[in-house]
Amino acid sequence: MKTEKKAVALKYDENRDDAPRIIAVGEGYLAEKIIEIAEKENIPLVENTEVVSKLVHLPVGVEIPQELYEAVARILIFIYKLEQENAQI
To answer: Which CATH number applies to 6-88: 2.70.70.10, 3.40.50.720, 3.40.50.150, 3.40.1690.10?
Structure first.
């Protein structure tokens, strides 16, 4: 049995938000579209099924729950390091 693809897009505005905010959530076709748009716009993608499974049930516009701060921070650090490495190439 194949599991349905899930995707969550986050945005963090340090001047406005206390934590990253959910800006898109989708399963199946909608998840594929979110991923497609991110790839088209060169937005970094990180696969973390545990975090996504907790975020996918939350409404768009809310900040991530405090219990996910550490996990999302690790993801953001990973993305930041990738961007720094790519900038040096």
So the answer is: 3.40.1690.10
